[in-house]
Structure prediction request, 235 residues.
Amino acid sequence: MASLIIPIHLAGGPATAVGGVDVAKTVVSRAGRMVALGPMVGGAAAVGSSGGDFDGGITFGLGLFFFREALFDVGEMKKRIQERVMERLKEKLLERAQRGEPPSKDETEQLTKSLGDEVTTQVRNELAATPSAWPRARFSLLGESEYFAPSGSWQARAGLGIGLGRFFVGPRLAVEFEDKVTAILGIEASTCLLLGKSSRTPVVNVFTRYDFRLHNRDASSDQALVGLRVLLDLI
Prediction:
């Protein structure tokens, strides 16, 4: 028994078949949730720094988000399967020996394969934890256009975010087109919620931002905003 070898094949790296069960789809699905790229649409409510100017607008553009989604380790999976299959195979063979019915070589190979498939499914489910609907943030990029209906102004904005826990924090640079063209520098904090469990899932981005006008400050005041965007993930 000590010389018995359990054949568990791992050819091709992480996206491979273990014990006859293909884990590639599971790996790709979890990896896909680490990136969200696609068009987005949303809205925001704004209030001027003076406290008297209220505004609201709609926004649309393109967003890219990177998350720190947990992935299971295929090397750890292989180790667990080998240990568990060996243990259960020994028990099965010992039972047959005690009944005076030692299995043939073909029966032993078939039993090993059957146990390998069964144990692989169990271990994969143990290691592949339920994906988080509120993932940890890594990095984000966005470009958007925003229209504020009450004031009738358009803004074109671009920015990036650095992950701090479950939040993206970073600068936003915008150009406003109203009576005068105004440059605006903002600081934004946001977080994302993943609405599905698959690799391609809609993303809700809830944000708050403060915008500083770099010039033409007599025309309008700085603004504090809160809003949300919905991104349709294309990858």
Notes: The longest strand covers residues 35-48.
